[in-house]
Give the backbone structure.
Amino acid sequence: MPTTTTSFNHGQWSSRLAFILAASGSAVGLGNIWKFPYMAGENGGGAFVLIYLLCIILLGLPIMMAEVLLGRRGQQSPIRTMQTLAAEAKASRWWVLLGWMGVFTGFLILSYYSVIAGWSLSYVIQSAAGDFVGATQPQIGQLFSDLVASPQRLIIWHSIFMLMTILVVARGVSNGLELAVRYLMPGLVFIILLLIGYAISQGHFWAGMSFLFTPDFSKINTAVVFDAMGQAFFTLSLGMGSIMVYGAYLPKKVSIAKASIAVAGTDTMIALCAGLAIFPIVFANQLEPAQGPGLIFNTLPIAFSHMPGGLFFGTLFFVLLVFAAWTSSISLIEPVVAYMVERFRVTRLFACALCGGFTWLVGLGTVFSFNIWQDYRFAGKTIFDCLDFLTANLMLPLGGFLIAIFVAWVMQDEDVRDEMVMHNAVLYRCWNILLRYFTPLALICIFLRVVGVL
Ligand code: PHE
């Protein structure tokens, strides 16, 4: 990292753009390209997308600003930031639990994230080896089933991805991260646009469009709202300290609001484009939109198998997907690494190896949930489903809720105002009211509905 002005020597971003790039690197990942399309497919399309967009604007964006603000004011890992800020606001010391919960959530998410990123790694090799060229749709489906049925293969790819993450984090987060995001993300967007172009040329583009953007209000129920909310938190990396820890490295004078809008906007555009690239292929091939986590792996190779230059573009696509996952996984493990370095004065390498090792071990649960343990179910869910539900639908929104309460109700208003650097008083008020009343109430209502009270 370029300069070192924070108390624990974590360093600081060189500019606003650097922060935007890093935070977008965290936000844009498997959540946009792998998870958003299959969640939309499972929840009936348009109605889900509509609620997801509302959640991004009304819940995600205000909470993102609050989370960046906490990080920049606290200047340390989420755990110590919460300690410092609770003391500053003369609030209960228990607020530190918010930091701890974030660290734990990140750890759980990374455990399965790494397994799915491993699928993408495997697809890089399969695509480069020409496995998709001229393959029929059943053959492509078979390639995916073979992969997830093999614990050995999944473990190898999961291990490689985890090692990649540890290696980068051990060297310090911004070395190379800014560069990677600056050049690779536009590349990813380019290939997604190319796929959309392909969909248009093949003639099923409008079927995809109408699936994603024509809401069927009869499909809206508690489960759809709950999933859309969880996905909004997951895709923006909110509620567990990733955005907070990146906020800690944000220079003081930069406008938090503008930076947050840029990050949330980029993230949302990429998710919508991924949906537009995938659903036309689903409809053109009479595939099942609600097929779950295998969706992109069963659909995109079909496009690559037919289009000119498919081998090249297919390989490049999966390479870029791995990079997108990589810049997200780094941010999942950074909060705990930052904490260990501050607290125990261990080297980054040691902290990374220890945390990465544990996460890897927990990830085996996800690996086996696709094959030898697929029949072990808790309330009908596999281990992977449970982890996903627990983190995205429960822990991240809870983290976001507590962040909103802390910033809007616990911190001194002049501290918030001072840190926010928002010159437009009306906008500041809007944000503050959203965060103070709307966000917590909306989250409480959703939770109460889910437990059947409302
Ligand atoms: N936002 C990332 C994605 O969409 C996942 C993530 C969640 C990263 C939470 C950090 C924290 O892939």
Summary: The radius of gyration is 21 Å. Residues 58 and 438 are 8 Å apart (CA to CA). Residues 1-9 have pLDDT under 50 and may be disordered. The domain at 16-450 is CATH 1.20.1740 (Amino acid/polyamine transporter I).
